[in-house]
Amino acid sequence: MKLKIIVISIISLFAINNAYSKNKLDIKIFGGALIPQNSFAVFTQNKIINYFENDTILRSGSLKYVNSNTGYIVGISGIMNLTDDFKFTGSIEFHRINTFDNEIKKENNSLEFHPLNVFTTIIPISPGVMYYILDDKIGVYIKGEISYNMISYSMNYPIDDVQFDLPNSVSESRLGYSIGGGVDYFLDKVLVSLEYKLKNYNLIGKNTDEESKIAHLISIGFKF
Predict the structure, then answer these.
(1) What is the pTM of this model?
(2) Which secondary structure element, helix H or strand E, spans residue 84, and what is its range?
(3) Which residue, 94, 91, 89, 90, is CA-closest to 71?
(4) Cα(76)–Cα(28) distance, rounded to whole angstroms?
(5) Total structural domains in the chain?
(6) Which domain holds residue 177?
(7) For residue 60, what is the domain's CATH number?
(8) What pLDDT sits at residue 150?
(9) How does DSSP assign 58-83, residue by residue?
(10) Which tens digit of pLDDT belongs to each residue from 169-205?
(11) What CA–CA distance (Å, rounded) separates 151 from 168?
């Protein structure tokens, strides 16, 4: 389903580009690094985890979050002039945090009895506005976006016969925002763009015990 959304969005952006070429709608393809500011896990810190074998609880412990590893982003956006200084941007992106290292600790003890790997995937759909402080051969801009974020988590256990009372996958949607800026530079007929954004994925819609999911995004893009 998510792959279909990405494919349809890419086709739509190219179709709009052809239809509104006179209005200077540019297509930008980009990718880069995602650096989480905090843990992205969906589960609460105080949850007690049970380890089963043949439907019998052998051990209990609490989930300990170590940290979120650096991930990556890829995306495509359409950019249209509103005025000489302001531009509208609309984008769809794919964010992936490759592994999320967790440990299950024994109750009342710091000893680990099993690791977990959680993979986080986020698809933000984001409209926004760019303001160009400088727009010449070198462009300098600031940018703000709101985003609808489709977030999913998938989990695996390094040992195949281990069973925990945790779901293998979780999906949720949240509203968030991003603020940042970037620099454009014309290289022959292609505009190269270096951009930084601070992104909050769950400003609106998060659960009571859910921490803010914030990340730093650094990307390089090519505008055609």
Answers:
(1) 0.77
(2) none
(3) 94
(4) 6
(5) 1
(6) 2-223
(7) 2.40.160.20
(8) 93
(9) EEEEEEEEEEEPPEEEEEEEEEEESS
(10) 778 899 999 999 999 998 877 889 999 999 999 989 8
(11) 14
